[in-house]
């Protein structure tokens, strides 16, 4: 199995008092295995802006591990984005995940609101205003963005983000390794050489897995869906099965040259740490 060069975890700003109280413990547990960084999500149109910053500060204070904020631009202005970038730079942030963000429901059939319409415009703005002060990661969609017109148009959007100055990419979740390898092959043929790190979502629930796959357009193999449906009333058995499926996916990815893994933790430590142990990644807990 290839030695991964990038291992990271994603968190989201907690939305309830209970989630806020739980998060420091989750962060400490995950930090014990020495990831390269934590990324922290950010809502579209400025939502969760303060939550992103507060979670970033919590990561640094509790662990000292690098914290990487997501920055979404849809519905925002150049002035607001500039202010956020300045704030992050003052806080010592060296890396940003630059995203368009989800369109509000009222804009689904119209142009994206705000001064930025696409993520490549955000990447270009960061480069124009801050040069190489930030390493910039962008999103990649091995199975096509759910709002893209076609695979070709979706890949053109990715190419535009790279041309604007992206240093790397994190993929949307997927459970079909062939989709990832096909995407990487397309990048190679197009002369795109930035690392594309697979985004990994542990399977912990039948309903949640279906919901995540439906919302982002990811294919859940039929045999996996049927087994999850069968096991949904036996949570321990479902978790064991789901983690076995995702472990094999990760093994396949790493064995065939994926440069790392980016785990969507959903603010839970145990499922991701079990995957980490199954794969024998760095420090074990």
Structural notes for this entry:
With 285 residues, the chain is of the alpha/beta class. The chain has a single domain, classed as TIM Barrel. Strands 1-2-3-4-5-6-7-8 form an eight-stranded parallel beta barrel, surrounded by five helices. The mean pLDDT is 91.
Short description:
The protein is 47% helix and 15% strand.
Write the layout of secondary structure elements.
Blueprint: E1 6-11, H1 17-31, E2 37-40, H2 49-63, E3 66-72, H3 78-90, E4 95-99, H4 119-130, E5 135-140, H5 151-164, E6 168-173, H6 177-189, E7 196-200, H7 206-216, H8 222-231, H9 235-255, E8 260-264, H10 270-279
Parallel strand pairs: 1-2, 1-8, 2-3, 3-4, 4-5, 5-6, 6-7, 7-8
Helix pairs in contact: 1-2, 4-5, 8-9, 9-10
Shape field: globular
Strand order of the largest sheet: 1-2-3-4-5-6-7-8
Specify the biggest β-sheet. Answer: 8 strands, parallel, barrel
Q: What is the radius of gyration computed over CA atoms, rounded to a whole number of angstroms?
A: 18 Å
Provide the residue-averaged pLDDT.
91
Unreliable residue runs: none
Architecture (CATH level 2) name = Alpha-Beta Barrel
The computed structural class is: alpha/beta
Q: What's the domain count?
A: 1
Q: What's the level 1 CATH class?
A: Alpha Beta
How many H/I helical runs? 10
Estimate the helix proportion, in percent. Answer: 40-55%
Q: State the end-to-end distance.
A: 21 Å
Beta-strand residue percentage:
15-25%
